[in-house]
Amino acid sequence: MKKILFFSLILIVSINLTAQLKNTQYKAVDEFVLKIGPLDSQNVANITAALTLKLADKEQKARAIFFWIANYISLDGKAIKANDQRKSLPEDVIKTRKATPLGFAKLFQEMSSMANIRCLVVDGYIKNNIEDLKNPADEINHSWNVVQLGQSPEQWYYVDAARACGTLDKKMAFFAKDFTSEYFFADRTLFNFDHYPDNDAWQLGSGGPKSIKEFYALPIIYNAAYFYDLKKPAPALGFLKTKTTAKISFSLPFSSDANIAKVSLIIGDGRKLQKPEPMNFTNTEGIIAFNYQFKSADTYPFKIIVDGKQVLEYLVEVSE
Fold first, then answer.
1. In this structure, which CATH number among 3.40.630.10, 2.60.40.10, 3.40.50.720, 3.30.70.1060 belongs to the domain 239-319?
2. pTM, two decimal places
3. pLDDT digits (tens, 9 = 90+) for 109-120
4. Topology of domain 13-218, per CATH?
5. Three-state SS for 51?
């Protein structure tokens, strides 16, 4: 019975991972990585060699490393909550198969270096939930990577395997595996809304927040925003003030290829959480637009849901 259950779980994981491969430009690389599997008994050097030696160029090698890490390493909620970085070295991560974001970033850097890819670890800040808008982190709370494939400034790329692997609940007690492909060579504009480096030199591109205060004033970005290739949303600020007699206009520029059928708002949280409320919206060349008038005077969070996926979260203060 135990054997049947074990092989059933393996089949479920395989099906879930295979489903993730659809509609991605890296499908061949990802399938190659899945065939290699978790390589449980191997060290960092052997795993890197297995992933990269047969691939043609540095971008493919970097993708293989990213995909393997994001699918076979999990977030260590207990260590993250305690800010415990004692087991963030690559060999420790390989042994335990779980890590803090710093552990993810160090492992990606180590494996990239072994594959002759220039890669650096970037420390900085992210917004984990809506409470962060009013209570910004007072110390570094995340790490990611930048990868260089050429001499031009445009040939530096963002990679965040920790965010790509899945999510933790608010208490950081439960980890849900949920691979997000778009954290590999992520869109710079969206990534800069979602990440703020401790060293400004590693904010790639232009148009990102100029200070940590400005960063924490932005709305919460969810993984699905990357899936839909969200650009600069409006309103730009995460904390909104309005009246019960006024409407707020929302504008969400998505990829023109995004086929969006439904947009909803989920208002409140905890015991005050309301059911999803469908929005009447327009879609003009990829720009989703709608208006909403909040009915109750209070302060509460609300999420924008696109085809069942959380994209953005704001905090609103409504007065009469």
1. 2.60.40.10
2. 0.90
3. 999 999 999 999
4. C8orf32 fold (3.10.620)
5. helix
